[in-house]
Structure formats: C-alpha cells, structure tokens
Amino acid sequence: MVDAPSEPVVVVDDRGRRTVSWSMQVEDGQVTFTHDFPDAVRHHYEAGGPGEDLLLYAGAFSVDDDDGYAGDVRWRWGRRPHIEVRGHRPTTLNDLQKQFDSTEGMWVQPSTLCIELLDGVLPAQPASLPQAEPETDTPVRPVSSRSLSRRVEQELGTASALHHVTFLVPNGWEGFNGTGICDPTDLKRHRRGRTHAAGGGWQVILDAHADMSLDAWRELQDSAGYRFTHSGRLSRIDGSSFTRVEAFAALDRVRLGLNLALGRRTTCALPVGWRDGKPVWCRWRSAPVDSCSSSSHWLDETIACKQVGEVVSLMLDFTSDEANLAAVRPALAYYVAGNVDVDVELAVAVPLSALQLLSYYRFVEQRQTYSRNQWKDISTTEDELRLLLNDLQVDPSVRPHFKSLVAVRDRLSAAAAAEAARQAKPAPSTLDALSVIVKMRNVVTHPTRPRPSTFDVYEWAEAGMHASYWLSLALLNTVGYDGQVAAVLEDMPRWTGQLRPPPWVP
User: Fold this and answer.
1) Cα angle 485-489-494, degrees, rounded to a multiple of 5
2) Which residues lie closer than 8 Å to 159 by C-beta, 6 or more apart?
3) CB under 8 Å to 265, separation ≥6 — which residues?
4) Under 8 Å between Cβ of 351 and 460
5) Rounded to 5 degrees, what are φ and ψ at 365?
6) Which of 104, 133, 145, 357 is the most buried (most CB within 10 A)?
7) b/e 459-480 (16+ beta carbons within 10 angstroms → b)
8) Where does 86-237 have alpha helices with state H?
9) What are the CB-based long-range contacts (under 8 Å, 24+) for 459-464?
10) Which residues of 19-48 are buried (b: 16+ CB within 10 A; e: fewer)?
11) Among positive and negative, which fits the CA dihedral 309, 310, 313, 316?
C-alpha cells in the first residue's frame, strides 16, 4: 500500500536558503524527499506547444490612431515569426475616403497599437485563443464591419528602472546536465534544466520548460518544427536597475552567444520588464528563428548546459567592447548562414570569408602583428587563413577517412605537379586540407571558362564540414572558450558524450 505524498514543508534558513520536504508512506515505512532547488523562471507569457500561436492580448485597442477595435494580438510561427493583430470595428465614411487618399510607398511601417494599461501594469495573458469563426458562404460580420490583420512591431508600458527582464527562447538546446529547478506552483515537481551565464556585468538564467521531455525533443527535431523551449531571466550582477536600451543591447549579445552555441538562429523573444514584482513593459517584435536541427559543430547533449552557459558568459564579456561586437557579429552571421541557408558550394565559400574576417581582426586590429599595409602585402587568401589556423593549432591535413576530399587532393596535386613539370619547375608539395578547400572555393568565387576541375556533392560536403568546423573553433577561440567540444571529424560516427578539448588547449 502506497499513500499519496504529503504536502510539502518549506523551511528558509537565516541565509535565505529554501528547503522543500515531503513524505510518502510505503509498505516498508516512510520515505522523505528533500530538495533546495529554486523556482523555475516564470515569464509573463506562458508558451504553448509546437507551432502553436501564443496569445499576447485580447480586448479593445486602437491602431495607428484609429480607435474602436476589438480583437487580439498573437505571436505567430514560421521561418520568420512575427506579431500579428487581428480586429474589427464598424466601418465609417472616413474609411472609404482613406482608400482613395492612400499614398503608401514600397515600404510599409508596422502598425502601432494603443492598449490601456491599468496602473501601468501589462494586461494578463488571455487564458486561451479565441474560438475560430465557423466557415460559411455568407459573411460572418455585417458589411458595415471593418476588419484588419496586420503585423505589429512595438513596445508597451514604461521601461524605466527595470529590476529584471524575462523572455522566451525558441528552439533551444537539449541538455542533460542542467542544475535543479522546481515548479513554483507545485514545489514537489523538480527537474534538472537550468543553465547559468554571467558576463559584462549581467547575469542570465535559462530554464528548460517542464514539458521538454526526451520525446518532445525528438518530435521537435524530427519535424524540424518550432516552439518555445526555454524561459530566461536577465538582471544586473550587482542588482541595480537598468533601462530598455541597456536590456536590448544585453539581450542581443545573449542572442549572439546562443547562435554560436547552436549554429543556427534563435532569439530572446517577447522580453518583459519587471519592477517591484510587476510586469510593466514588453516588446512585441518579429525575429528570424531556424528550425530545430543539429547545426552545431561542438555542442554535446551530455554537457550542453555547461557549454551554452560558458559561451554566453564569454560572449557577454567579449562584446562589452564595441569593436569586438562589430567584428564578431558578421563572422557569426557567416557561420549561421553557412550552416543553414546555402547550397554545398557556398557552405565552403561562406565560412572561409568569415575566417578571413577573423584573421584580419586578430592580427591587425587586436594584436597589431601586421599593419594594414603589411596585411595587404600578404599574397593569398590561403596565407591569411593559414595564419589563423596555425594560431588555433588546428591540424590542416586531409584525414584518410574523408575519401572524397582525399580524391580532390590527389586530382589537384597531380594537376599542380603536371603544370610544374611543363614549366620545368620543382614539383610542389602535397596539398593539405586548407589548400584543397581554398582552391575549391576559388572555383565558386572566381569562375573561369576552362574550369580546372568539377566537384561532386560529396566532395563539396566534406570540404564544407572542415570549413564550418574551423570557423566554429575560430569563433570559440575569439571569445575565449577553452572548455570541451564534441569530437567531430573523427574516422567513425561520433556518439553522444564523445568529447575532447579544443586544439589550443593542451
């Protein structure tokens, strides 16, 4: 006979540490459970399931100084999620006149809503989406009703003196090593799902949602779907208040760290500012989000929470310098684009362009090893990239198990040897992976009528694996990461938990 568990007993010691205990009667006696986990982050907007619209507001509003509407505002999914308002009101003669007076150009500004806030506090999230209207052959609303469906980009409320900001992360990461958290509405429900980060004067907490089970992750990945998987909280390390502008800048840097960790685009969505425990400000804005897929070249589920926390912390520190931020942002955009947005040929060319950018920034701007004029004297792209790979201590050799890349190397080496013999020059040394990949890239970026070679999809794919992996290492090294990475580019399929230090760590 097993009885239902008792109600939890909460004890807070003189240091503010909370302990939660409850008991359960079993056949052989009584079992007591105890934990000291903090509450999971609670966002003002509770997320739904995969691909499910998130309702933000329902009620009365005015739009672009046009009042009298009733409807709702919601987050809508897609390759570029966006905020959409839907509403209706009676039609007026002025509406008809506007149709004739319209002077909209090619660019249309997103609409702005005016919503009344009671005592300066954001309205509570509606409990559910409105019921869909029945399909019928006749209009549901009378002809005299004016309806709208538009995108919205705006802020709501007052953003001064914020104590902390909460937000949602779409299509985050699966990690088995998070720290403990519990459900604030049921203290007995607890899980390992928290990721910590701190840097640049900010601290960030990222909590996986309770419904993100192993099955939920598999479903999300297999369907290449979209959903909110984590809730986050941003605050100052010293506890001081901050402004919306400071929050925007910090959240953007958190986003860069997450994108580096995942190898694809995610964002800090629907930020809500809190003051004295009340939600007083929010920003409704669209953002690009990539489907949930394995795009990272270094993340591993067994330590993913630690890896993500470290790289977000380092990104916050590194990008506190505006020059660093200006350099890493485009390089990271190259990395994500090369993983997600391009065909196999450009999956080689795009990462090499980013590596050139990082090499220049490291040796000219940061270390000042070369002046700008001296850098211009470096003869080839390959020489610029080799400086960086040597600094990262990356082995540029072509490994035998990359059989397609070996075939390209042998073809290009034979062609180079034949050309040297024709010109009575010494035979060149055997090409390494960097030389091969740069030559392949030149075919794409500098096409000529008599192409020196053609490459099949497997040859491009293996070249792209190397280029993207080198770029991920360069980005990690740039922000100062020295933790473990997934052991990729091995001679057998990598299994979860197979790790190694990056090449610059002994």
Assistant:
1) 70
2) 243, 244, 247, 273, 280, 281
3) 259, 288, 289, 290, 336, 340
4) no
5) -85, -45
6) 357
7) bbbbbbbbbbbbbbbbbbbbbe
8) 93-101, 214-222
9) 459/404, 459/405, 459/407, 459/408, 460/344, 460/345, 460/347, 460/348, 461/344, 461/347, 461/404, 462/402, 462/404, 462/405, 463/348, 463/405, 463/408, 463/436, 463/437, 464/338, 464/344, 464/347, 464/348, 464/351
10) ebbbbeeeeeeeeeeebebbebbebbbebb
11) negative
Closest CA to 230 of 278, 272, 174: 174
Token pair, residue 440, equals 């392949």
Alpha-carbon gap, residue 386 to 409, rounded angstroms: 17
DSSP state, residue 365 = I
Where are the strands (E) in 91-161, listed by range?
A: 113-114, 145-152, 154-157
What is the token pair recorded at 287? 């953002």
Residue-by-residue pLDDT tens, the chain, 506 positions: 455 667 888 999 888 899 999 888 877 778 888 999 999 999 999 998 999 999 999 999 998 878 888 999 999 997 788 999 998 888 766 665 565 555 555 666 777 889 989 999 999 999 875 554 544 454 444 445 566 778 888 999 988 899 999 999 999 999 999 999 999 999 999 999 999 999 999 999 999 999 999 999 999 999 989 999 999 999 999 999 999 999 999 999 999 999 999 999 999 999 999 999 999 999 999 888 999 887 788 999 999 999 999 999 999 999 999 999 999 999 999 999 998 877 878 889 999 999 999 999 999 999 999 999 999 998 799 999 999 999 999 999 999 999 999 999 999 988 888 888 888 888 778 899 999 999 999 887 776 655 555 889 999 999 999 999 999 999 999 999 999 999 988 887 778 889 999 999 98
Global pTM value: 0.90
Rounded to whole angstroms, how far apart are CA atoms 249 and 244?
9
* β-strand pairing of 164-170 with 228-236: antiparallel
The candidate with the shortest Cα–Cα distance to 225, out of 83, 375, 100, 50, is: 50
**Which tokens sit at 438?**
């740069």
